[in-house]
TrEMBL record:
GO terms for biological process: tricarboxylic acid cycle. InterPro entries: 2-oxogl_dehyd_N, 2oxoglutarate_DH_E1, DH_E1, KGD_C_sf, ODO-1/KGD_C, THDP-binding, Transketolase-like_Pyr-bd. Keywords: Oxidoreductase, Thiamine pyrophosphate. It comes from Idiomarina fontislapidosi. This is 2-oxoglutarate dehydrogenase E1 component. E1 component of the 2-oxoglutarate dehydrogenase (OGDH) complex which catalyzes the decarboxylation of 2-oxoglutarate, the first step in the conversion of 2-oxoglutarate to succinyl-CoA and CO(2). Its cofactor is thiamine diphosphate. One of its GO terms (molecular function) is thiamine pyrophosphate binding. Its EC number is 1.2.4.2. Belongs to the alpha-ketoglutarate dehydrogenase family.
Length: 934
């Protein structure tokens, strides 16, 4: 800061004399937190010029310069700042203390069990204020209470009401002054007492009556049955309904909700409008015969329309397994797909809501992963509203020192500067006020926001548990504590808003409605037809016909397009060479490699107007330097994507290098693919074994989502796989795990070995009217293998080959052994056989291991009915790879009376050895054994 300018500013008339010390303290408060001073003072301090010697001047340096000049001015004036000035600053510090730490004294726990530490900052004495000051008038600074000055006692009461009542607000960790000021205006403006009219209050009571009534009804009708009751957290129902209504008013068209078990049945019936009779049938064990294996009722999803003042809003509750928080990124992916479909890049039309347990949000790492994604290009959804049903106990773990290492379960949200609003669930008006505040913040700033609904759990983890065995003090209180409906009904009766008789009658009316079994949500509307139509993909078999033809002219035109880039876009020399080679491939002057064929497949789909989404940690370049779909200018770091510059009316391709996550990213892409069947959605692992980090998503969603929930999904996983001597961590994509989970035609598992095959496989995945996952073991060394090439003619008017017959000109009658294999080992076998000039062993490639191509293999086997010696050869250890999971298919494929033996690595606990020399020995041995006939 320039000293001359500072001195001139200090010497201005209204800052002269004894006010200097006061101004210095004001400036100190401003530097700590710009929102601590009024708008007028903040604008004045903001106008001070920055230090020209350093872009980021240290605050300590600025303070010291200000302090020195202020003291000099004070000496010149020969005065002292008044006691009143000092007291004024102390009042401003008190206000700021409440903003920072008032939540620690808030009345949040309905049971009164929370024992928070005393916060000295909130006492008058801490700030050198006494009883003698209580009736003195002070300027309130930026405190948004509608008055510029107030008596200290009124200021103190207002602060208690705002920050230490049923709402505990944490927002001072936010860096943005604008966001903090916005929250302060909204919170402080109502002085802790939000106003609701009679209609709103009676609506809240009716919603609490419904929440309580359903649980009591289920408890009496199905005693002892698991329902993961909402009791204690009943305010979740008015919270959600208020959230949906207000979002509709503000233009939201679709809401996607993710939640675990607690309160799910209540939300289904009392918010989404599921028929009670349908729920009762599920309790009774009834189900439709065509619903696959099904799932327990508190995992099931639901869709409906909900009437709001701004129009009907479509609601979708995501299906969710017992892995609790894993549904968070699934919801975000579904929301992003809907945003893209509605051309809503900011998230104005689609709202994600996730509902958490207090133990789960603090304990499960997927929450951090999802928060981390929230502002990135590939995964942002315009902010989400996150609700914690905080019943202060996780199964049987309730002590904070056992459940987490932070004061609040919501502290994880501070990593993305999300405001956190703790609220006492027994005060439904405070809950609804906070809900409206949270939604408005999200819609204004497009940032995550958290509502911590502090409540309790009336029963055990499920209704069969005995909670007092592990939480005796808590449940002694719970047994005596009235339900939220009773508390609020009494409050409204005292205020002459609702009579006791009316409140009792509503209880009976709701029970009568449940007896009828029809929808009990007044806002429920018949679901209208939405913009996505899944009907073309329902009920189709794998072998359904599709148009796979593409002409030579189209291939050549698109091939040249994907090899072009602006002359001014300077490429890295190695990338430039790749593109020079691609132009030769496009013109038919050179056989095509993997990268070219893959990119050309995308181009043919984009040419048809199809949207493509590809994410992964290195997907733009490709981990193994083969894709180069995103070209980086070496001069200015700008990017160019040939695939997005094919023609004017093409489809859009999105290729993002993702955050370093597997679980959250794959779950996000799964969510996207379940909401958008018309897009080709792909995730590429950096190395195939990284899919281990997403195993929950693979097991619970991808492999069984259709069987359990009827959810179709066309997500493609690209998993680099191949034994190259790179050690145990980067060899295997764990093919055996995917094959072990293969059943009911739930997905396809492919191991393509040529560029033409990957071309056809990608196109088939999107063009065939089937939406099931595709798991691909993609290559590493094959990307540039001299034999793994294809000609342009291999792409014309043909499709993917599930199995490939012998390609050399062998006389089938001379063949004594047939080797079946998949993947890279084929080329090792082929090269060794050619080296030996051996003509008595035929090699057949199985390119799709599941569903096993029995008909295609049978057709190939017609030439080898005389052969009795069949071998399955694989690179993976015997207990891994395809051998154990698929050998029943191999046995069924070979002629009757023939023998099938294994040739490959011995069983191993690790996927591969870590020594290149040992790897080479093993590889040579398995090839020799596969080809040598004794």
């Amino acid at each position: 800061m320039q000293e001359g300018v500072m001195r001139e500013w200090l010497e201005s008339s209204h800052l002269a004399g004894g006010n200097i010390a006061y101004i210095e303290q004001m400036f100190e408060a401003y530097l700590d937190d710009p929102t601590a001073v009024s708008d007028e003072w903040r604008q004045m301090f903001d106008s001070l010029p920055a230090n020209e010697q350093a872009v980021d001047a240290k605050l300590s340096d600025v303070r010291e310069q200000f302090r020195t000049l202020a003291k000099n001015k004070l000496k010149q004036a020969g005065g002292q700042s008044s006691v009143a000035d000092q007291k004024q600053v102390r009042v401003l510090q008190l206000i700021n203390a409440y903003r920072f730490r008032g939540h620690q004294h808030a009345n949040l726990d309905p049971l009164g069990l929370w024992k928070q530490d005393e916060v000295p900052d909130l006492s008058l004495a801490f700030h050198d204020l006494t009883k003698d000051d209580l009736d003195r008038e002070f300027n309130v600074g930026s405190l948004a209470v509608g008055s510029e000055t107030m008596k200290l006692k009124d200021i103190h009461k207002a602060l208690d009401d705002i920050y230490c009542g049923p709402i505990g607000a944490e927002y001072m960790h936010i860096v943005s002054t604008e966001e903090k000021r916005w929250i302060q205006q909204r919170l402080e403006g109502v002085r802790g007492k939000p106003s609701f009219d009679k209609e709103q209050q009676t609506g809240i009571l009716r919603e609490l009556t419904a929440a309580d009534g359903l649980e009591k009804y289920l408890g009496s009708k199905f005693p002892g049955a698991k329902r993961f009751s909402l009791e204690g957290g009943d305010s979740l129902v008015p919270l959600l309904k208020s959230l949906i209504r207000r979002s509709g008013e503000q233009g939201t068209q679709e809401v996607v909700i993710g939640m675990a078990h607690r309160g799910r049945l209540n939300v289904l019936v009392n918010v989404l409008g599921k028929k009670p009779q349908d729920l009762f049938d599920e309790f009774a064990g009834k189900h439709a015969a065509n619903k696959g294996s099904g799932d327990v009722k508190y995992h099931m999803g639901f869709s409906s329309d909900f009437a709001t003042p701004g129009g009907d809003v479509h609601l979708a509750l995501a299906f969710n397994p017992s892995h609790l928080e894993i549904v968070n990124p699934v919801v975000m992916g579904s929301v992003r797909a809907r945003m893209d479909r509605l051309k809503d890049p900011k998230g104005d039309k689609v709202l994600p809501i996730t509902i958490h347990g207090d133990a789960a949000i603090a304990g499960q790492g997927i929450v951090q992963e999802t928060f981390n994604m929230s502002k990135t290009r590939a995964y942002q959804v315009g902010g989400s509203v996150r609700i914690v049903v905080n019943n202060q106990v996780g199964f049987t773990t309730s002590k904070q020192e056992d459940a987490r290492s932070t004061q609040y379960c919501t502290d994880i949200a501070k990593m993305v500067q999300a405001p956190i609003f703790h609220v006492n669930a027994d005060d439904p008006e405070a809950v609804v006020f906070v809900t409206q505040l949270a939604l408005d913040f999200r819609n204004t700033f497009k940032r995550d926001v958290v509502i911590d609904l502090v409540c309790y759990r009336r029963h055990g983890h499920n209704e069969a548990d005995e909670p007092s065995a592990t939480q005796p003090l808590m449940y002694a209180k719970v047994k005596k504590h009235p339900v939220p409906r009773e508390i609020y009904a009494e409050r409204l009766a005292k205020a002459n808003v609702v009579s006791e008789d009316d409140a009792k009658q509503w209880v009976q009316d709701y029970r009568d409605a449940l007896d009828k079994g029809e929808v009990v949500v007044d806002e429920h509307r018949p679901m209208r037809k939405h913009s996505v139509d899944w009907s073309p993909y329902v009920g189709n078999d794998w072998d359904v016909d599709y148009d796979y033809k593409v002409s030579k002219e189209t291939l050549q035109t698109l091939g040249e397009k994907i090899a072009q880039y602006p002359e001014a876009h300077k490429l890295n020399s190695r990338v430039g060479k790749v593109y020079q080679e691609r132009m030769k491939m496009a013109k038919g002057e050179k056989p095509m490699d993997w990268g070219f064929a893959e990119t050309l497949a995308y181009a043919t789909l984009l040419d048809k107007g199809i949207h493509i989404r590809l994410t992964g940690q290195d997907s733009g370049r490709g981990t193994f330097f083969h894709r180069h779909a995103v070209l980086h200018n070496q001069k200015d770091a700008s990017v160019y994507m040939p695939l997005n510059n094919l023609k004017d009316d093409q489809g859009v391709v999105e290729i993002y290098d993702s955050v370093l996550s597997e679980a959250a990213v794959v779950a996000f892409e799964y969510g996207y693919a379940t909401a958008e069947p018309k897009s080709l959605v792909m995730w590429e692992a950096q190395f195939g074994d990284f899919a281990n980090g997403a195993q929950v998503v693979v097991d619970q969603f991808l492999s069984s989502g259709e069987q359990k929930w009827g959810r179709l999904c066309g997500l493609t996983l690209l998993l680099p796989h191949g034994y190259e001597g790179q050690g145990p961590e980067h060899s295997s994509a764990r093919l055996e795990r995917f094959l072990q989970l293969s059943a009911d035609h739930n997905w396809s598992v492919c191991v393509p070995t040529t560029p033409a095959q990957v071309f056809h496989m990608i196109r088939r995945q999107q063009l065939r009217p089937v939406r099931r996952p595709l798991v691909v073991m993609t290559p590493k060394s094959l990307l540039r293998h001299p034999l793994a090439i294809s000609e342009m003619s291999d792409l014309e008017n043909t499709g993917f080959q599930n199995a490939i017959a012998e390609i050399d000109d062998l006389d089938p009658k001379k063949v004594k052994r047939v080797v079946l294999c998949s993947g890279k080992v084929y080329y090792d076998l082929l090269q060794e056989r050619r080296k030996r000039e051996q003509d008595d062993v035929a090699i057949i490639r199985i390119e799709q291991l599941y569903p096993f191509p029995a008909d295609e293999v049978a057709d190939i086997m017609k030439d080898y009915q005389h052969v009795k010696d069949f071998v399955w050869c694989q690179e993976e250890p015997q207990n891994q790879g395809a051998w154990y999971s698929s050998q029943h298919n191999f046995w069924a494929a070979i002629p009757s009376g023939a023998q099938l033996t294994y040739r490959g690595r011995a069983a191993s606990a690790a996927p591969a050895v870590g020594y290149l020399s040992e790897h080479n020995k093993q590889q040579q041995k398995l090839v020799d054994e596969a080809l040598t006939i004794k």
